[in-house]
Amino acid sequence: MGLSNSKPSNGPVKLLVSPASRRIPWAFLSWLALGCGATFLVAVMISGVRLIVEPDSPNWLKTAFPGLTTSFESVPQTAAEIEAEMRSQGITAGQPIPWPRAERPTAWFYPILGTDGLQEIWVYRVRGNQLQQVDQVAIRPIKDSFITTPLIGTASQVASVDSDAPLSSVQLMSGKAIADSPWLLLRGQGRYGNTVMHYGQILTYQPRAQRLHRLLNWSSPAGRQPQWQNSDKQLTVDQAVGLRPSFLLYQFLPNDPPQLREISLYRSVYGGELTTSLYDKALSLAQGAVWSHSLQMMQSAKAELRSNWSTEAQAQLDLIRLHAEQTKAQTERTWSSQQQHIFAYLIDGQWEQALTILETNPVIYDSMLKHLEQNFDALWRSVTVHLKVHPNDSSPQIWGALLVTARQSPEAGQDWLQKQTRAKTTLERLQAVGQADGEPASSTAANGASEPPPTAAGSGRYRRLVGQASAVDTPGGGWLRSQTLPTPAPGQTWYHIQVELLQDSSGWEQPPAATAPATFWAESSSLRQQLQLFSGNRPTAGVTVYGVKTTGASITLLALGQKVAGPALIATHDSLRWLSTLPWQTAALPSMTPDRASANDGSTVSTPTTLSAESEPTLTALMSDTIGRQLGLTSEQTAQLYPHLQYASLNLTGDAAPEHLFHTGLSLPPELTLTPAKTMIFSSAGALLYSDVSQPQTLLALTANGGAQPVMLLIEQAGRYGLIGL
Prior knowledge:
Strand order of the largest sheet: 18-20-24-23-22-25
Low-confidence stretches: 1-6, 66-71, 436-458, 590-616
Structural class: alpha+beta
Mean pLDDT: 80
């Protein structure tokens, strides 16, 4: 094997070269197309939205697609064509409203009317000599429960279900702050009980967006439409009932669309970084409707905070001033009666001035107590709030005692004041109120010198009520409600009140069977304003009733009130005669006899007299024999018990003969091994009618009567209340 002997060719050499590969950039082109498509889609969407909102603005879609805008715009018409079209369709329109003025309007508002008042508002913009519809808004009616909210807790409070109240008219509102856009005030009115309520809505129209917006529903027992104040930056709604002012204040916010923000006096605008004690106290006084004093303190807080004073706090100050100016003006009026002048001072929180008038006019004491009773809840809130801020002020302390006196008794008022203060001058001043020349004002009233107490019109069938309250976390459903349910304030809770007894002109009775909720609501209009929570035999606070429902013979009320510990008893303030307030006397044999003196509620009571055993054989036999047997005592032990045994004679069954009541005191001789605070009731003939000596129950009170009907006994057993008859 060896090398080749062939010779290389002398011809030309050819080189073969492979061409480079040309690949197309498909990934780049795909991303480019996707980006362009997304950009186009976004542009179309933006232009489409703009075409809907602003159909008059320049828009490339309108040029590219001339027929597209017909989907969004109505055909322009003359006013005559619009009216003719409405007539042909059976549509009734009210008087059209031009804006901003009739000479050169840029928009027209057509109220569309129906059988139930205002149904719609059609909005037209002006295009030359024609009008083009740009909006059509349905008008929703207002709930009765919202309209009657200002009447809650007043003598004018009414029952209402959630039915609808129509609106009947519309007009333009005026004001500097709203000059750039039209505001529409919708109105209606209706009678609720004895009160004519005015109510409505406020709408605003945005010319740029060509849309109507709802801003606010309002109602006013005072018959006044919302008003602008403070350079038209604040809107006020007057919700006053009677002499007591009540305003809502809204701050105008020039947003797009504009807003109305309600100013609240129940929220501090400062956190914990500042010392704001004056501000906090002023806010508390305002929450208790002590307006003039709250204004003074809030102005002091403004001076104290200086640069830290906020616009929100200033709005609260403006709202307080609005109330204080009215209550102050009422104290400076000339009144036809001293009671009205006193009441004006009380509403303003001028306790000393009100007390001075009462002290110098003792003849009006009894009638003034009636006024206090009728306005208890609002005045009690004002007094207690003032005393939280100024616990040592004597004048509001005395008014608090007078309120308790009006609700319960003079003794209860004295006891309440003694818990507030030990100042001798304050206690003596309370005792002197209502006395002239050393005589109580009630004796003067008996001679006809006092003004007669005002009578309540439309008070309803029932006069008194006794029931049991159960605290609940939520109201539940199924209620015939008087208004929208509020949110409980701190320290408050909802109660379900089971009605146990009712009193009408014929006497006490259990709730009637098959009573409709609306019927009971109407028949209990007076007593609902007087319901009181009791702890033991003392009133703790009033409650506000918001609803009722019935099931067969069961009537349940929905109420909001202060939280109380333990079982809660509900009653009108004069429904019960507590055992501790009965005319007891020490039962020392034979030192008493029934005397047919009349008690305040018509019952006959005993008065201490000296009587021989021969003149009252039944009572003597009871004390010497029957009581001893009931208690399991010997004759010697019974004699030992006499100094600790209380006795009273009351007409409990409504007949001519009084019954005998015996009650063991709290401090009994230990050798007798008796349970204290036990009660026995005997008939006039000596028959045992009631005894809880050997029963796990305690007699607490008797129902008040008119002297001709039998009473019921209120007992407590195992933490529950019950009512039984004799």
